[in-house]
Amino acid sequence: MAPMAHQASLTHSVAFLARRAATALAAVAVLGAAAAPAAYADAASASPKKLPDGLYGTKDPQYDGVWRQSLALLAQDTVGIRPAPSAVKWLAGQQCADGSFTAFRAAPGTPCDAKTGRDTNQTAAAVQALAALGGHGDTVRKAVGWLKSVQNDDGGWSSMTGSASDANSTSVVIGALAAAGEKPGSVTSEKGGKTPYDGLLTFRLGCEEKEGARGAFTFQLKGAAPNADATAAAATGALGKGFVVEPAGPDATAPVEPLNCKGGEGKKAGSDPARAAEGGDGYLVAQLDKNGQHLLSAMPGAEQQPDVGNTADAVVALAAGGHGAAAAKPLKWLEKNAADWAKQNGPAAYAQLVLAAHATGTDPRSFGGTDLVAALNATGPKPAAAAKKDSDEGGSQDDGGLGVPWVIGIGLAIGAGVGFLLSSRKKNRL
């Protein structure tokens, strides 16, 4: 569903936009440790003195503006809310002429140049939102065309072009392709003819690993430690799904089956995306059971803390695999523990919880005593209506909307909330 935020200190939302982690954003903005790589930070548009009308959140959008806007609009659409025209206009207006998006363009009227930090995660998030909203066919097609043009030879994607593929970026692009009506398995790299699923499965840990790691995915390097964040993203992406996962239904009680290393099953799972997704779900369930139905994350050298964003992603991954009963357990933990985290981290965090609730058939308007929809709506311009979507290309989009006051805060450079995004950028730097 890329940018990271601030949970115990400042946790997920921006960075790779990929999804979650507990991290000090001050470090992110200054050192790039938890959010964007140095090159990305250098290329990002300067932070605005005043946030533009239509933008969700009050924190610096330099690293996650498009990401949090996309998640907010997508969550609203999912629950039947028609977003404010100014909010949709702002998102579409962030696109570069070549179809790509960066995290934030302070002057969208100025053409993108070689210094613009084009980002596959931001672009893929925008595609998923604009495709769902309708009326932006040309924008979506251009963005998908750009994503295809920067596919790596192994079939996957990195957050920033020219880097090695990673599981999170590849997963979010798969979701974008599917949202745009493409068949991800038919999108092949120019050299090698590899599909996104080929690229994604290279990060899967198989039967050659220790028992506790089998079925998990690494973020990037083969042989690296299992990564719950990457596993949640990959378990959803391997099924060809994006941020929005439709509720599986009341009979979605199939038990999760961990990777089976007997006979030839382990080998088959290494080439079958659906079986790899099931193995990833098995790893997630084991971690959730171990930790009390939530996942953990921590910056290097820091004490591990509950990772709300990653737990929400795990709920979506389990629901995507048809494991409603397994998803219900961490969802209950979220209902009891996610409200303060979401309030602190803003629109992307509220959106992530709305999408987790949607995937499990839970009412986001009564989520552990919190109306997530009302809270999300309050972080930006007033929605147009709880009605239908605009269906005509480039439908009416005015400049109206409530401007959000600028809040200066070193370390609050991101409007946090979405798991995989930040953590991936962090790992790209380690």
Automatic annotation (TrEMBL):
Lineage top rank: taxon: Bacteria
Signal peptide positions (record): 1-26
Keywords for this protein: Membrane, Signal, Transmembrane, Transmembrane helix
Keyword Transmembrane helix appears in the UniProt entry: yes
InterPro entries xrefs: Terpenoid_cyclase/PrenylTrfase
Keyword Transmembrane helix: yes
TM annotation in the entry: 403-422
Entry protein name: Squalene cyclase C-terminal domain-containing protein
